Structures are given as C-alpha cells and as structure tokens.
Amino acid sequence: MANAFDPNTLASLPASEQALIRRRQQALGQAYRLFYQQPLHLLRGEGVWLYDAAGQPYLDVYNNVASVGHSHPQVVAAIARQAATLNTHTRYLDEGIVDYAERLLATLAMPGHQAMFTCTGSEANDLALLLASNFSGGQGVIVTAHAYHGVTSSVAACSPAFGEGVALGPNVRTVAPPDGYRANPEDVADRFTRAVQAAIADLQRHGLRPAALLVDTLFTSDGVFADPPGFLAGAVDAIHAAGGLFIADEVQAGFARSGSHFWGFQRHGVLPDIVTMGKPMGNGHPLAGLAARADIIDAFGSRVRYFNTFGGNPVSCAAGMAVLEVIEQEGLQHNAHVTGAYLKAGLEALAGKHELIGDVRGAGFFLGVELVNDRQGKQPATAAASRVVNALRERRILLSATGPAGNILKLRPQLPFAREHADLLLDALDAVLASV
C-alpha cells in the first residue's frame, strides 16, 4: 500500500503514540493500515483543515469523503435535526427519501432512472453487479488493470488494486487503463475501445456472456486519467453491442469533483445503464447508492424484493440532501472547475522546474502528479513519491499516492478549497521537490 505506516518503526515514535498504536493493533488486528511514516492523531476537522492532538492545523488535500468541508454546519445540523425526530428503515412511508431521490436523480439528467440506496460504495457496486447479471443474463465483468471497486466478495474479485492477496474472479477480465502519458494521447479512445472489445471476445471464447463494463470514470486507482473527454464512448458501445451494461462507478468521481461536470461520465457524453455513488454523498455520513434504468430495476424487482436496513434511512437522506444544497448554494462545482484549473496550472509550472514531475493530469479537484526517475524512460519514482508525501506531512499538508507503482501523487481536496489553499500547497510542494 502506498504511503502506509511501517509497524517495524514503532519504536521511533513518541511514547504516547506508541501506546495508542499498540492498543489499536490489539483491538483491531493486522488488517488495518495507518497513513504516513509518522501516523497522525487527529481530533477535529473544520472546512479544508484537520487538527491534531496538539491543535496543529493540517491542510487536507486528500479526504474527498468530507467533500463540502469537514464538519460543515449545514450538514451537521441536518443530521442532528433528523436524528432528533425520526430514524427508521425504508418500509414505512417517508417524504425524505422521495424528496432526496428526486433531487439526486435530477443531477444525472437521465429521465427514467430510479434510485436504490445502500450504506457504502462497496455495497452500491455489489448491488450494481447483481442488477447487471440479472438483466443481461451474463456473468462476465470487465474492469481496468488496477481498479478498485470495493471490499465485498463480488467487487473485491473485480478490484485488481488489492494485488495478489485477493484473486480476481474467473469471470473478470482486465484492460489497460486509458493512459495518455505512457502511450500516444491521440490513440486513447481507439486503444481503450479495442481493449474492451478484446476482453469481450475472450469472455465469449470461454463461454461467458458479458454482463458489465465497470469503470471508475476518473480511473483514480489506475493513476487518474480524465482526458481526452469522450474517450469512453466506443467502449460503452462495445459492451452494449455484446448485450452487457455500462456501470459508471462515481464513488470517487461524482458530486461535482471534476468541476466541468457534476458526474464523471458526463465528461464523455455517454449514458450509463447504472451509476454507482458513495463516499462524498453524505459528507462523512455512511450514505451510498445507485441509479439505474427503470427496466433494469423492474427486472430485478420482479424476482427480488430489495431491502437494506440502514440504506436510505431518514438521517442519511437528510445528510445527502444537505450536501446537494451546499454544493449548489456555495457554488462548489464552479469552484472545483476554476480553482482546480488554477491548481493544475500551478502544478504544470512546477513540472517546468522539477525533472521529477513527468506528468500532471486530471480534472477539477481530482489531480494526479506522476513522478518519474527520468522523463525519457518514464521509470516510476516510487521511493521519491513516498518521500514527497511524508515531507509534505511534516509541513502539515496531507495527500497520498496512487497507481500500480505508487508513484502518482493523488490530490483530491474538499470542494471549498480556495486559491489561497492551492498556493500553500504549491509553495510547499516546490520546496519539497527541491529537497528530494
């Protein structure tokens, strides 16, 4: 895992942190991971800032879950108000879930889609695969080569990012991500389309009917690939021609993050059969779900009566509604577009100064900065990326790394992130790159 704490260095930490980490290891076991060489002990968050146990502020350029800002008062008030009134499941009539579903579906601009709610993005993707298999009669799933789609058994088997520790399903085929840095950027669309067509043919050759093409629309775990707009269209046509569905995983890319559009798929002018969503949906409250064509949901509902105890409960829907209201009222999509472009331009300027930066890419407030040991060979600078991430942490700026080699700085700040915050990041990154 990129940017993970090494338990073998525990003795180098202050005594109080050692004690808390030992308690954590004893209570939570070996599967959990901590960020940074020196883990952070955080006590509170406000806006784009996080505060540690000593009251020191950290500029958060990583946690896209609290998308409209940590502890946003409007979201907190909505949760508290509803929790003090009523919280139960979806088998009773309640206006809140209907109001929220209608407003959420309106952002998709796809008439005829309906909503289903879960608690996590993993659940949403799991449910999407059930819907796709039921509707198409197929089993085959196509994903990108380092994709991450969740932790349930079915989606973990479609998540190559887990590595060798989690086997891919025999019904899963992987395709190379739409990388315009290591290959000709003008060929991204054709290359990706041909890869999906080859994966479909391989599934069929093994007697597997394709059920779905499942992609994170900003390809965030593969290394952040947003351009050129429209490159997904041919691959979507290919899966439809084979009788499968296109599932747009918007768990990380959605809710105005790309700036130019509310949803990542909208950058490509395609209409997903199913859209999955999560993470920023409740600004930290566990809320997720999907939107699918009505005929897909009808086909599923004729065989299965869907129920999720906590998915779509009144408190969750109040949180989700507040998030949509804040994004609109505070102009946060526009801010992601404008300030994201400012930040990207600043990163490109740093690339002109520092040979370590091979590429700057992404859209809005989801940017990737690929670090390479040499620009000609484009060899991943994995160790340098780790040093940069931890050096920025020492300067109280938080981000992480992604991609198969862990050499791509992953920037995904909260939507209220302003120019002044971008300047703080750029100045710190400039100094760190000079030292590395």
From TrEMBL:
> What Gene3D superfamilies does UniProt report for this protein, alphabetically?
Aspartate Aminotransferase, domain 1, Type I PLP-dependent aspartate aminotransferase-like (Major domain)
Q: Which SUPFAM superfamilies match?
A: PLP-dependent transferases
Which Pfam families does the entry link to?
Answer: Aminotran_3 (PF00202)
Membrane spanning residue stretches: none
| Cofactor section | pyridoxal 5'-phosphate
* An annotated Gene Ontology molecular function: transaminase activity
Name the UniProt key words of this record, in alphabetical order. Answer: Aminotransferase, Pyridoxal phosphate, Transferase
Question: Which family does this protein fall into?
Answer: Belongs to the class-III pyridoxal-phosphate-dependent aminotransferase family.
PANTHER family registered for this protein in UniProt: ALANINE--GLYOXYLATE AMINOTRANSFERASE 2-LIKE, PTHR45688
Name this protein carries in UniProt: Aminotransferase class III-fold pyridoxal phosphate-dependent enzyme
Species per Swiss-Prot/TrEMBL record: Aquitalea palustris
